[in-house]
Design a protein that fits this description.
mainly alpha
Length: about 210
């Protein structure tokens, strides 16, 4: 059942003009995800502080940035992701058996866990509320393009969407495409633009205007 978040955010309306363009986009996306049933507003409030710190996803972002800048590491990552990721110091429970998925113009990878909420904690931190929700877990398999559209991602018709089902044995990390305009950037600058959603496959990496 979808949740009505209107009353929940009523107190924000009188000061809406104070929100930055990015904050407005976040609010709009939150409202849409609540409406679609991906997110329970009470659960989101209880956990949003944790997710805003982004401590976990910064590890994954560094893995992606290294893959974008170091060809030998990139090859190693796709041959043995667990070892390659471990070499950067990111390993442990929920990250024992990692597989890296490469996004290309031809193929977009998206991760779901249909049976529970298996998630690569060492590189992505705690799973977001919507990742564990039944609407995401079912629709990601049935209608992945529709889910991507809900997240604001519209891919070319020529791009194949592949959905990967995480298990207790295998966790996936999506390596998103590097924006062309970031060629030549150093690792730290690249890592700063890699989002958690891009590493799940529900987002793409973009450079802020």
């Amino acid at each position: 059942m979808a949740h009505d978040g209107h009353d929940h955010h009523e107190h924000d309306h009188h000061r809406g003009s104070e929100l930055s363009p990015i904050a407005l986009r976040v609010k709009a996306l939150e409202s849409l995800l609540i409406e679609k049933g991906y997110v329970d507003p009470a659960a989101m409030d209880a956990l949003i502080e944790t997710y805003e710190t982004k401590i976990g996803p910064r590890n994954g972002a560094r893995v992606v940035a290294r893959a974008w800048t170091d060809l030998s590491f990139r090859r190693w990552l796709f041959e043995d992701a667990t070892a390659a990721i471990g070499s950067l110091g990111y390993s442990g429970r929920q990250g024992e058996h990692m597989v890296a998925l490469e996004n290309t113009p031809e193929t977009h990878n998206m991760v779901v866990c249909t049976l529970c909420s298996c998630y690569p904690w060492p590189v992505l931190g705690l799973p977001p509320v919507w990742y564990k929700s039944p609407p995401y877990r079912s629709r990601a398999v049935i209608d992945p393009r529709g889910v991507l559209k809900d997240f604001g991602v519209e891919l070319p018709a020529t791009t194949q969407v592949r959905v990967w089902d995480s298990t207790a044995e295998i966790r996936y990390l999506v390596i998103p495409m590097q924006p062309a305009e970031t060629k030549g950037w150093d690792e730290a600058k690249l890592a700063a633009i890699v989002t958690r959603d891009a590493m799940i496959g529900t987002g793409i990496v973009q450079v802020s205007a």
